[in-house]
Amino acid sequence: MAFATIAVAFLALIIGAAFCFGGYKWFMILLPVWGFLTGFSAGAYSVSGVYGQSLLSIATIVAAGVILGLIFAVLVYLLFPVAVILLGASIGYSAGWTTMTYLGFSPGWIPAAIGIASAVALAVLAVRHHLPKYVIIVATAILGSIAMIMGILLLIGEVSLQGLEQEWPAHLVQAPATWLLAWTALAAVGLLVQLRRAWTYELDLSPQ
Prior knowledge:
mainly alpha
């Protein structure tokens, strides 16, 4: 197994656990981390698509990933109310897309349309009813549990790093029932743990 795969798998497990069980309490720390990883993936993947993955292009790929990752990290920290809305919207889209795909629809405009509708609905609901706490808790529990399951699947060789970068939602939908149950259980436990902690802890959502 390649070192990169092992490193990504353990990183997914560690960060996934932090999101799943402590996403609300540590949100102001994890938010820039989430932004950096998102930006790094987007930058590195875009550059590798242009220059390929030769030895000479590795430095360019890493540099592009780091630069875009830092930009994303700063933006989501400074514009955290927007980031919370986008976080909720991303969960809505993933839920809509995954549900339609699981029901047998091929990836295309129908799952995408349902995903977009779900994203807008969840974002509007969160804003209208002032639910940033619960958006953060639900979103981080779900995203964290997904990251942990994907990390395990990488370690045991069920999915490849290249395939995971391109179509991780499809891997989740097509996974055996045992893994879907494990993901559901992890998300539920993370949700309960965060809700219990939220009774005695109120996150300061004002950037310092």
